[in-house]
Structures are given as structure tokens and as C-alpha cells.
Amino acid sequence: MFNIRDMKEKISSVLALSALFTLTCFAVFLLHDKDTSLVFPSVPQQVVKSNRSVFGAMMDHVWVTKTPDVSMETTATSEPLDPCPDTPPSLVGPLLVEFETKRSLELVRKQVGSLLQQGGRYRPPNCTARQKVAVIVPFRNRSQHLNHWLYYLHPVLMRQQLDYGVYVINQDGDGAFNRAKLMNIGFNESLKEYDYDCFAFSDVDLVPIDDRNLYRCSDHPRHLSVAIDKFNYILSSKTAFGGVSLLTQQQFLKVNGFSNTFWGWGGEDDDLYNRIIHRGMSITRPDAQIAKYKMIKHGRDLHNEVNPENAVKTQKTAENIDTDGLNSLNFTVKEIMKDVLYTLISVDVRSP
Ligand code: UD2
Ligand code: MN
């Protein structure tokens, strides 16, 4: 026989148990949520809060806190990830960029280091990047510039959802500087580490001020530094290709890379442009309203004086392209140093 009181007691104990179970589940969920916010620290990024296309003095700005979709730990999963969307969802548009603040490498490491893998490597954790990009920075004795560059570029490249690595190619010694040869070396050396399909060649003093300017290669070699503050945001000429330019592995091989023989300042960018045209390609650029840059102020560096011979050489691209470039590159690697923010490759370029 059923006893009504027994039944009531049983029902209430079942109810109590299920309430306890629900509470426990909720607590576990909360704890887990807390954990993930530890794994995904947030990167503050100063952005200009406006959709105005020209910067004004009265431009207001805010610090926004974006939760980056970042954790190298989560990339270790075996499941293949979906391709990243064509338009990265976390872009913020115009950025507030200033170089008055002193930025130590230590500070930059604190800001973005936890989101990177040793050597300045990153890949989006929740999708497969559209391109694998090696960012090559020619360098000598510009540490302050590099700190600013790393501080601003890493968050931008992360928001652009690139699978990328930063390679700072340091010219050892104080012989004549050779920007172009350093680029060729960066191409060669980065490919020894990873199967990069796109190469972004960037001066160390150029910081984009809009993150919609994607560091991605396209069907033709691409020139990104279209509008620079130093030149009142006006492109110097239709054939300009210096500053920041991107080529796929195939495009770069097709032109035999840069010439190795442009010592000192000037001409190597024009020669690369000539090579591109000579090989039947053209160049593309993003819209000037977006492809805006600030150049960190600097004078002419020691041992990088204007070389008048370079201007003459730019007239002879067609003669040299087959024999002077990636296929004639010679150099000696002196040291490879892995920082969390970048891979530094010091090289002897055999200056004359
Ligand atoms: C212009 C071009 C640059 C290059 C150069 C001529 C633009 C926006 N920039 O820049 O791409 O064609 O003319 O060579 O068109 N560097 C060092 N240490 C040195 C010297 C140079 O690190 O001692 C590196 C550094 O990355 C620097 C780059 O080489 O940004 C170009 O040198 P620059 O900044 O003196 O030349 P600039 O601004 O006239
Ligand atoms: Mn410069």
C-alpha cells in the first residue's frame, strides 16, 4: 500500500536533490568561465572613435578593450578549423597612434607577449587564417622605432586574423646599409621556418593608422603605405612601391626578389617596381582613405647616405633582373635570436 506522507517526503527529497544538482552545474559553469578569461587576456588598443575619414585635432578617442580570440593552447586541437571570414570581425578602423611615449620592449612584451608564440608568431585560434604571412623588417640601430612598431603592429595583425611571424633582419657591422638585400634574406630565412605564402616587407618606422588596411597578399604585388603623414597623406608617385609592400611567394620568385646591389639610400624600391612591370604584373593599392600611415620622425642614418649610383641602376632593371636577386644572394647569418615579439636574424651582407 502507498503511504501518502511517504510519497510527499520522497517527492520533496527528489526536488531538493535536483535543485542541488542545478546549483552545482551553475557553479561549475561560472568557474569555467572565469578560467577562460584567464586564458584569454584582453589587449587594450587605443582607437579613434569616429568614422570620419580625415583626422582632426579635436578627434576624440577611447581605449577599447577587445577580447582577442587568442590562445595558442587552443590551437593544439586536432579538429580542422573553418576558414577565417573574409572580413575580420574585430577590426576597429582608425587608430590613435603616437610616438611621444617612450615604450620599452618590456612594456610591449607585457602588453602583447602572452598572446604570441616565441619568435613573434601568431595564428588565430578559432579559424584557419586565409594567409600565412612573414613580416620582414630591415633593421639596424633603430631600437626605439622597433618598440613602437611592435607595440602597434602586433594587435593590428592579430585582429586581421593572420597566421604570421615577424622577422627583424639586422644588418651586422657598420658597412653601407642594404635594405633590399635584407629583404631577400628575410624571404629566404623565414621560409626555412614555415611555409609562408605571403611576404610583407615593411620599414621599421611605418605604423598603419587604420586596421582595415589588411596585411594580405593579392593577385598582384600590393603597395600598402599609400598615404603617409610625412608627405601630407599624398602618394608621391603612381610608381611608388617603398615603405610597406606585399608579394606572394610566387610573385617574389617571379621577379627574382630585390636586387642585391643597391648600397646606401634610394632606388631599390623603384627597381622592384620595374621588375614587377618587366615580368608582366601590375601593382594594387588599398583606398588612400584607409591605407594611412605615420612615419616615426628620423634623420638620415649613418652609413645609409644617398647613393647616386642607385638612381642610374634603376634604369637598368631589365639587364639585371635575371642575374641579380634571389638567385645570386650571398650572406652569412651571424645570430638568430628568438624574442617573444620577433625573430631577430643578424646577418653579414658583405658590404663592399
Ligand atoms: C624611403 C622608403 C623606403 C626605402 C628608402 C630608400 C617610403 C615610405 N619609404 O624611406 O622604403 O625605399 O626610402 O632606401 O617610400 N633602416 C634601418 N637602419 C638604418 C637605415 C635604414 O633600420 O640605419 C631601415 C629601417 O627599416 C628604415 C628603412 O630601412 O625604415 C628605410 O630607411 P629610411 O627610413 O631611412 O628611408 P626613408 O624614410 O627615406
Ligand atoms: Mn623612414
Automatic annotation (TrEMBL):
Q: Which residues form a coiled coil?
A: none
The record's section on InterPro entries has: Galactosyl_T, Galactosyl_T_C, Galactosyl_T_N, Nucleotide-diphossugar_trans
Q: What is its pathway? A: Protein modification; protein glycosylation
Q: Name one GO molecular function term.
A: metal ion binding
Q: How does it sit in the membrane?
A: Single-pass type II membrane protein
Give the CDD domains listed for this entry. b4GalT
Q: What is its EC number?
A: 2.4.1.-
SUPFAM superfamilies assigned to the protein according to its UniProt record, in alphabetical order: Nucleotide-diphospho-sugar transferases
> Mind listing the UniProt keywords for this protein, alphabetically?
Disulfide bond, Glycoprotein, Glycosyltransferase, Golgi apparatus, Manganese, Membrane, Metal-binding, Signal-anchor, Transferase, Transmembrane, Transmembrane helix
Cellular location of this protein?
A: Golgi apparatus membrane
Question: What family does the Swiss-Prot or TrEMBL record give for this protein?
Answer: Belongs to the glycosyltransferase 7 family.
Protein task: Responsible for the synthesis of complex-type N-linked oligosaccharides in many glycoproteins as well as the carbohydrate moieties of glycolipids.
Q: Cite the PANTHER family for this sequence.
A: BETA-1,4-GALACTOSYLTRANSFERASE (PTHR19300), BETA-1,4-GALACTOSYLTRANSFERASE 1 (PTHR19300:SF5)
Put simply, this protein is called Beta-1,4-galactosyltransferase
Q: Which organism is it from?
A: Poecilia latipinna (sailfin molly)
Q: What is the lineage of its organism?
A: Eukaryota, Metazoa, Chordata, Craniata, Vertebrata
